[in-house]
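The step that takes the researchers longest sounds almost clerical: writing a folded protein down as plain text. Below is the pair of lines this work produces for a single protein:

——
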Amino acid sequence: MRMAAPSPPERRGLSRDGVRLLVATPDGMAHARFHDLPRFLAAGDLLVVNTSATVAAALDGARADGRAVVVHLSTTLEDGTWLVELRERSAGSGRVTDAVRGETLALPGGASLTLLHRYPDEAATRMWAACAMAAGDSGEFLARHGWPIRYSYVPDPWPLTAYQTVFARSPGSAEMPSAGRPFTPALVTELVAAGVVITPVTLHAGVASLEAGEAPLPERFTVPDTTARLVNMTRAAGRRVVAVGTTCTRALESAAGADGTVRPRSGWTSLVLGPEHPARAVDGLVTGWHDPDASHLALLAAVAGPALVQAAYAEAERAGYLWHEFGDSCLLLPPGHELLTVEQAHRGLAHTGQPAAR
């Protein structure tokens, strides 16, 4: 049975790094807490993190007939056009299905939004390209009038700070790059002291509420030169490159050549990882738990293989892990160099005892 986390772990009496962690390897599964992550990595492993910060991307809107809607801003395209999703007014309720090209919606502060066309083409049913008339740039406008996107499994509103990770530096994500949320300054310090290297990429995540079978939207990303060199050096040394989240994976793989060599790159990515395009640079993945029919599962399988992903999800459901951005975590470690076995992991946890299940 899948259970969504309805609130941040801090509200449930846990620290951010106190959420549960399922470590999935071909050798088996280990149940831990996120603050145990250093015990499952080794000196010389490379963690790649996303420095994108979450923006307040939800806005009140009103249609011409007075009906209230919520506008989710996924991203702003290069020409200034907004890529948006329209939803019914109650938090997390269904999408608006009767909007039409040319319709204008009123936004806060005297601003307005005109729907231009379906995105990426007229066969699409979810996203719109839209022209916004608002004072200032989109960042300033959202900071003044917006709030964090949330869905029905999170019934209460939470401040924007609840949707930021410890790595957040560059505003731009419509929804939190949530795999990085359980990291804390103390945990980062412990990882670095243990010899685990941490390096940044930036990918501004769009809305993640796509329908089953829909490909992820194009997203802006940057892989810095230092990160590219560290990835290549880590792979050459036979160590693991572990991406923190699907956003980091998409960014790195968008900058990777056929042989897995990563080069500095910045721009937009439409990469869809899956059976036709397996991961070439990423050896492991830290991820949260999301709906099994979501498109990002194909990305997980491209890194860890479908069998390991399926086994991890089955174990998470059996053990009652919590889903979505405020929920529990998973570390996927497919076969690779210096793989830590479950037996070794349990021995490493022996002095504190096996973490109790929630």
